[in-house]
């Protein structure tokens, strides 16, 4: 077995060294999962739900300890780690309340005269739902509790078993999820954690599996789609974004909007798939907006992620700093102006100054390529059509937002923007009640919402004809 080294991104020191899975152990785990699946699916929904409810409760009880683990290995500020874990039970509740109805058999022709159904010679048409089977869940590190549970909770509730590969940057958290699920009553082979990086993920795709649910970058998503292609199994990809916001000239309070958007851009160090990545502000309010935005950013407290007052910790992946430096340099070379930040912080740890760029345009990478860090470009526009065209000028299509007093105006703009989620006067927000999906390079399929449950079952069509 090889070794996976877990680093603390705040200090650059080694936290743990773990034995990683290899091709042989992954094949053994996949075989055990296959064997365990029928018995898990044969349990009643109530039994599976009671176990997941217990998991939900344990999560609430252990929140603070789990947050320490997550914060240490990802650098997420402790208050934000607690916030994520504290909000996960709410998402689990959505699944507990809604999965059973999506599993129920239904008559395909409910409007047909009921006495005729089942009558000699009549054909009764019924739809039932089978669990997918063995589900692979390859996950990201930035919101490991959210993006993981969005997949494995509905998968387990619908009767599938899960091979869960946490990101190599959130492995201790992934192992803690497995421990908690097992303690709650999920059998060991029904939920298994795979330890390792990209090679372990690739090895998982070679197993006898029934579906792949991936959260991560577009580049890796494309590799996964290609690897799974010939298997003829569902492949769901929740990928990156370059999420735009347009602040129209009719907002009542540009300064308040700026403060809210600074949080939307810099929360979790900008390492959110739906973080605000670029802003278009109407010329009429641009000066007030940029001033207030920069002031808000300069007020963010950066420091030790374990400290309760810290808002900005280190980046989780040191390698991302080179991407950010490249985007800043590219923008400056092409005429941008820095209003804040712009470089790595001297000293240990993967810290990068929160960075605000203005005088930006779409020749610059910072306006079209995912930054996934504490950096934002603010571009001035002269109207709705220009803003709409610029919002669409990227391969990504995860979320888009318009701030305006006028709902109809915002709806008009947002309906023309290619995105899976549309926000009016809000941003950087996910609801379990709504499907989370991307367009273009932001992925295929949906998690959350009823759509995010249905993707874990396969419909079976019954044509039932009583003998004449
Ligand atoms: P990543 O693509 O580097 O890695 C994601 C996972 O894929 C990891 O578990 C990794 O080990 C695994 N992996 C790497 N190569 C693989 C391969 N060849 N085969 C199989 N698995 C492989 O992404 P990341 O850095 O963990 O996450 C950041 C990205 O995730 C950002 O682009 C972000 O926008 C995106 N994201 C999207 C959502 C969403 O819901 N749309 C949510 C969170 C994060």
Fold and architecture overview:
- This protein is α/β, with parallel strands linked by helices and 468 residues long.
- The chain has helices at residues 23-42, 45-61, 63-74, 78-103, 144-157, 171-184, 198-204, 218-228, 254-266, 286-298, 320-333, 384-391, 407-414, 451-454; strands at 3-8, 13-19, 106-107, 123-131, 134-138, 161-165, 191-193, 211-215, 235-238, 244-247, 278-282, 337-340, 355-358, 375-381, 396-397, 399-403, 421-424, 436-437, 439-440, 443-444, 446-447, 457-465.
- The protein folds into two domains: 3-239 and 442-464, Aldehyde Dehydrogenase, Chain A, domain 1 (3-Layer(aba) Sandwich), CATH 3.40.605.10; 244-431, Aldehyde Dehydrogenase, Chain A, domain 2, CATH 3.40.309.
- It has 14 helices and 22 strands.
- Nicotinamide-adenine-dinucleotide binds next to helix 7 and helix 8.
In a nutshell, what does this entry contain?
This protein has helices spanning 23-42, 45-61, 63-74, 78-103, 144-157, 171-184, 198-204, 218-228, 254-266, 286-298, 320-333, 384-391, 407-414, 451-454; strands at residues 3-8, 13-19, 106-107, 123-131, 134-138, 161-165, 191-193, 211-215, 235-238, 244-247, 278-282, 337-340, 355-358, 375-381, 396-397, 399-403, 421-424, 436-437, 439-440, 443-444, 446-447, 457-465. By secondary structure, the protein is of the alpha/beta class.
């Amino acid at each position: 077995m090889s070794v996976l080294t877990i680093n603390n991104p705040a200090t650059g020191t080694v936290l743990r060294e773990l034995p990683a899975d290899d091709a042989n152990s992954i094949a053994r785990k996949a075989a055990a999962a296959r064997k365990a699946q029928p018995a898990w699916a044969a349990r009643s929904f109530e039994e599976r739900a009671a176990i997941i409810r217990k998991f939900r409760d344990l999560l609430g009880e252990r929140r603070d300890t789990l947050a320490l683990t997550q914060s240490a290995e990802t650098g997420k500020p402790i208050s934000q780690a607690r916030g994520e874990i504290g909000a996960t039970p709410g998402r689990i509740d959505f699944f507990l309340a809604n999965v059973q109805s999506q599993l129920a058999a239904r008559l395909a022709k409910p409007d047909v005269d009921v006495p005729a159904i089942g009558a000699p010679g009549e054909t009764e048409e019924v739809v039932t739902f089978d669990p997918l089977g063995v589900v692979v869940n390859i996950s990201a590190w930035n919101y490991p509790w959210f993006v993981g549970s969005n997949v494995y909770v509905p998968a387990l509730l619908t009767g599938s078993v899960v091979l869960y590969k946490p990101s190599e940057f959130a492995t201790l958290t992934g192992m803690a999820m497995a421990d908690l699920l097992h303690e709650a009553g999920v059998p060991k082979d029904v939920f298994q954690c795979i330890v390792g990086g990209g090679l372990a993920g690739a090895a998982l795709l070679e197993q006898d599996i029934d579906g792949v649910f991936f959260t991560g970058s577009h580049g890796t998503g494309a590799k996964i789609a290609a690897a799974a292609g010939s298997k003829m199994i569902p492949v769901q990809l929740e990928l990156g974004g370059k999420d735009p916001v347009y602040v129209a000239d009719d907002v009542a309070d540009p300064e308040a909007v700026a403060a809210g958007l600074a949080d939307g851009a810099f929360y979790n160090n900008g390492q959110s798939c739906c973080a605000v990545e670029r802003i278009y502000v109407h010329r009429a309010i641009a000066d007030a907006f940029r001033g207030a935005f920069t002031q808000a950013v300069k007020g963010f407290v950066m420091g030790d992620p374990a400290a309760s007052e810290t808002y900005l910790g280190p980046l989780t992946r040191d390698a991302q700093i080179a991407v950010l430096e490249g985007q800043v340099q590219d923008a400056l070379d092409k005429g941008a102006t820095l209003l804040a930040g712009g470089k790595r912080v001297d000293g240990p740890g993967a810290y990068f100054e929160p960075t605000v760029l203005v005088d930006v345009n779409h020749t610059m990478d910072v306006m079209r390529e995912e930054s996934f860090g504490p950096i934002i470009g603010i571009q001035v526009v002269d109207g709705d059509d220009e803003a709409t065209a610029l919002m669409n000028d990227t391969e990504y299509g995860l979320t888009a937002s318009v701030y305006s007093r006028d709902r109809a105006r915002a709806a008009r703009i947002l309906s023309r923007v290619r995105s899976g989620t549309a926000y009016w006067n809000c941003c950087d927000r996910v609801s379990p009640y709504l499907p989370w999906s991307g367009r273009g390079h932001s992925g295929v399929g949906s998690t959350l919402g009823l759509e995010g449950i249905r993707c874990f079952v396969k419909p079976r069509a019954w044509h039932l004809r009583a003998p004449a």
